Amino acid sequence: MDAVSRLWRGCAAVWSPARMWLSLVMGARFSTSLAHLGPPMTRDPGGRGVHWVFLGCPGVGKGTYASRLSQLLGVPHISTGDLVREELASSGPLAQQLAGIVNHGQLVSDEIIMSLLIKRLEHGATKAESGSILDGFPRTIRQAEILEGVTEIDLVINLKLREDALLAKCLGRRICSHCGGNYNVASVNIKGENGRPDFIMAPLLPPADCASKLVTRVDDTEEVVKERLQIYNEMSKPVEEFYRARGKLLEFDLPGGIPESWPKLLQALNLVDHDDKQSASA
Ligand SMILES: [Zn+2]
Q1: For residue range 27-68, what is the model confidence (pLDDT) as tens digits?
Q2: Does residue 45 lie in a domain region?
Q3: Max Cα-Cα span within the chain
Q4: Which of 49, 94, 212, 232 is at a distance of 20 to 30 A from 156, taking alpha carbons?
Q5: What range does the domain containing 9 cover?
Q6: How far is the centre of ligand 1, averaged over its atoms, from the C-alpha of 207 (Å)?
Q7: Measured in angstroms, how far is the CA atom of residue 193 from the centroid of ligand 1?
Q8: Which residue numbers are catalytic?
Q9: Is the pLDDT of residue 281 over 60?
Q10: CA 182 – ligand 1 centroid, Å
Q11: Phi and psi for 184 in degrees, rounded to 5?
Q12: Tens digits of per-residue pLDDT, 156-177?
């Protein structure tokens, strides 16, 4: 057994294999709604928390939705992109190796991603965290298989956005060169066809102080965005199929921006009551 496998075995103890609400019904097929399942939190007697994965192409907003759900459910949002950035900014053992990989524009290997993830989970275990919402992982079948040996993922949410809107949003991204704030100047308003509602995504405009200092990332050109999308689609299909075959994939077509999508996502996840309770106690 190599070092990585040993680490993963060790990690199994960190992630308790206790049953989770969705595992009770995993035999049942579902495609767009979990409304028949009852409130997830009441099906979590062991307090294991949800073990969810977010899939979705770059720019779809999965970090935003994963982060909102993590706050709502009180489980950590673990983004492998953040883990890589944090390690790079640290003086940790992998920082130098990572810098070399990233500076050469190479993909970070499964082994490095796994060791960062394990470190993060072990750190969480010391703080008695329960559950997790993973974002950016697994990226490959191999990662998905390893993850399966470590913990039972309850649900994989595949966020999808119509391509014209996605492209507009990716091309509309702006950063404030002064404070680093992220904005989006694209205003998407696509007329609904065949009686369907219009597709609306409002821009995220900067405050006056930032407005004159906006810059576009060099890699946010139409050509690069389309290529990024194509690569993502090719890489993600096997991972989607992996979870689809296990009855764990929830396909979710974003119906617009956050105001349009968030309530629908909660509905699909059967978390509407949960959100109401949170709002009432806030
Ligand atoms: Zn600014």
Answers
A1: 223 333 444 343 444 344 456 789 999 999 988 999 999 999
A2: yes
A3: 58
A4: 94
A5: 3-162+247-269
A6: 8
A7: 38
A8: 62, 139, 173, 217, 228
A9: no
A10: 9
A11: -145, 120
A12: 999 999 999 999 999 999 999 9
